[in-house]
Amino acid sequence: MIYFRVPCAGHGTLGAPFSSWKWPLPRLMLLAAALFCSSADAGISANGNVPIDDKTFGCISLLTPVRGFFVGNLLGNLKGTLAVAQSSTGGVYPPGSIVQLVPTEVMVKQPQGFNAITRDWEFFSLDVTKDGSKILTRGFAETVNSFGGNCFGCHIKARAQWDMICETDHGCDPLQITPRIIGAIQRTDPRCKGSQIVSADDAAALKELDAVRRAQSGLTGGG
Asked: Are 95 and 119 in contact (CB under 8 A)?
């Protein structure tokens, strides 16, 4: 009987050392057919979508920073996501892409055909604590940001080449908060290690955020 040791992306089995990867050749061939390491649809659920739950989202700074926002890819295609995020001319984000500006709001690109209206983006509103994330709302019509604005209503204004991603020059309405405040919100994500240590500058920025929220609440009749 012939045996092979087969590493997959730096591991033997899922969490096991290389020494445990010793399979008879016929069994290995069957395993490869079912669970090939680089399968293009790894992570896609039976309904054809990227499965997402509370545990999907973690510390924002563990994603990859790009010009003040963060990106990742739930299907492992970070290279493809970064290629679009870093492009000066735009492009279409690949399935599995995560785009996040602040800890409580996330966009995830689902596979083609998920929703033509949102160009296959799914929007999420989160509650975040030191214990993790909880999805409050998901979809597009139902999801609003921390200032009460509809996420889809803002992102749909981005010019087509930017695939609904808003930056200062992509066609979306300007944000109500400054880059300084955004940075402070990112650095104090309670899911991130060390976030409880707040610099004086970030503390001042968060006070400015409170003032913006109070003003917004007054405008909307919230008190």
From this structure: no
